[in-house]
Amino acid sequence: MKALFKTLFGDWLNLGFVALVMVIEVTLVRAGYTHQAGVVVPAFILAGVSWLSTR
Amino acid sequence: MSDWGIFLATYLAATVEWVEAFTIVLAVSMSIGWGRAAGAAAAALLVLGAMTAATGGVLRLGVDMHWLQLFIGVFLLLFGVRWLAKAVARQAGLKALHDEEAEFEETRHELERGDRHGAWLIAFKGVFLEGLEVWLIVVALGMKGHHPAVATGAALLALLVVAAVGMLVRAPLRRVPENAIKFVVGAMIVAFGTFWTIEALGGATAWALGDWSLPALVGFYLLGGLSVATVLRRRCVAEAVS
Prior knowledge:
Chain A is an all-alpha fold.
């Protein structure tokens, strides 16, 4: 089961980070900043990738 | 997205996973013979094939397209972020490159302690878990783009190529530039995930450049990832010197 979880979701850090990305996307879109989300979210994801790569 | 984009992303991702699966099957074959090891791999592939067919059927049962797109996009982000972060870490020298030779030896060492039944299970589990990632990509790229045949065909072609080359050399396939492939595929998958989740939430006009935003995102993650890796590598070297 542990191997299956890892295959589907990665680890808890990865899962938590993607959950945070989704919260940001939903918040921006709901607030009417849909076009801005297309700039903010990729930058945030790249920052997250950078952070995750050092863990 | 074009058929070629889906084909390329699926083919590259599947190649990496099948190479890892082949290494495990090869190690198991030394213990229980090619016939039984290949049988275990075939059983795992059958299960994966049934899963792919069943998923395709379920997804066509009138599921709302926006929810489906959001669901697939989240899975692509989960998958892509992990691949890209790992590729950046390896590129920066923070993590050792994946070594098929070491993986092969580790599996063989594991087999020395187990029985023949255990060896069969190792081959089955190895092919199933590596194939599960291929299944995710095939489902995500094939179903969203309405090109299940293209994605499935690309994954099968990758399987045939890896199996054919593997049978020829009968050794771990070390020359596949796994990290470079993971870098490109990771960037592509994160780009698809970003594009689809925002489009699912914000509607068809969410992206100012429309479909052209997708290649722009791929370029952004590729160049961004390479830049991050360069910065991290320099920092590593500086810390080692001081």
